[in-house]
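Incident review: delayed structure delivery

Summary: a single-chain prediction request sat in the queue longer than the usual turnaround. Root cause was a stuck worker, restarted by the on-call engineer. No data loss occurred. The affected request and its eventual output are reproduced below so the record is complete for anyone auditing the incident later.

Affected input:
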Amino acid sequence: MKEKILGKEFDKLIESLSKFPSIGEKTASRLALFLMKNPPNLTLEIAKSMVEARKKVKICNNCNSFVFEKKCFCNDPVRDSKILCVVENIFDMISIEESGEYKGQYYVLQGLLSVSKGIKPEDLKIDRLLKRVKKVKFNEIIFATDPTNDGEFTARFLNERVQKYCNKTSRIAIGMPLGSEVDYIDKNTLAKSLIDRRKL
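Output delivered after worker restart:
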């Protein structure tokens, strides 16, 4: 019935938008309505931006982060090459950088392990992380995943696998409230969390 009222193209747009994380059918419907009631050039602008970004983005073989038409900053010789910070996504990496308290290397997981969501180690390219850890012999590895169930599970899982290659592993301190997300924390709290990180 809904498809008959809205048309299959509009229904398909809602279905596509609902594939974004944290966007259900109702929010997807609102976004679709927003696009339809505004001038067509806005929709074309958004679509073009998405296509261009997707075409130009590359994944760094070293840190697994996104690189846009430039050399990844993980190759910066000024950074401490013997400390590694493992984060969930590029926004968490940016937040940590803005805290001003960390000058080491990063590894971006591009997600978290999750039993409920069916996200497995192979989905996060964890083998790439382990290969780097074995090769570099870091003095310290910091796990800066969110203090959520999935974040804690991921940190423990990774810690068990890197301990034999690194003498010191740590977890960012609970200066961050439990249940919060790294990219929503103010830089002072995040800086304190990094300074007071705890041993795993």
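Verification: The chain has a mean pLDDT of 87.
Action items: add queue-age alerting; document worker restart procedure.
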